[in-house]
Amino acid sequence: MGKCKSCVKSSVRENRRNRIQQYAEYERSRANLPHRVEARRKYQEEHKEQIDEYKKAWTKANAVRTAAHKREHYERNREEIIARSEEWGKNNAEKVRQFKANNKRKRRAAKHASCGNFTAEEFEELCERYGNKCLCCGVAGVALEADHVVPLTRGGSDDIDNIQPLCGTCNRSKFVNIVDYRAGEQGPPGPRDLLSEPSDLYHPGFDEPSVGWEDPQHSLVGAPGEGFPFVE
Question: Can you give the residue ranges of every domain in the chain?
Fold first, then answer.
């Protein structure tokens, strides 16, 4: 007399549980068959957007599980991951520099509660638009930094519309003054060229710009018409 369907199903499930490792190896071997690999590749190409959306939704719904899996993977492969990361950093020094500068800029923007944001790709496009050169001194072939036309300390946004590419020297020389070099090709400005009016003088310790100021704590003195504070 044959077994009932329920008994057969129960027996199959029990057999799979007892031989789960063997079944897993069998499925992996079948997954690597050429016709299956090609079918999987074709399906992924045709349904890329749906697959990406599904992955994002699943990751969001299983955030705790995903984080635990990442920690477990890192602990299990810590030395290999660190070595691979260090090797990548050596081979991509410029990307690492840009990544660190971008993070520093984002922290500053958050500190000053500045609105807006821009990506590394947007800054690269901006640099290409201006010939990959510093808009202040005109030198090309140097590392360019994202300078805020209206500084964050003076209420400027962190949007790409408020960004101009400058070399490190010109960026620091500009200090916290409002100077827009995007209108045309210009040479390096002098101290007075950085100020449109004496009232543009600004000290980060104050909420508003002023014509003259004195900071007893740091012995800094500013006078009308002078672009930078100096130590008395």
Answer: 92-194, 195-232
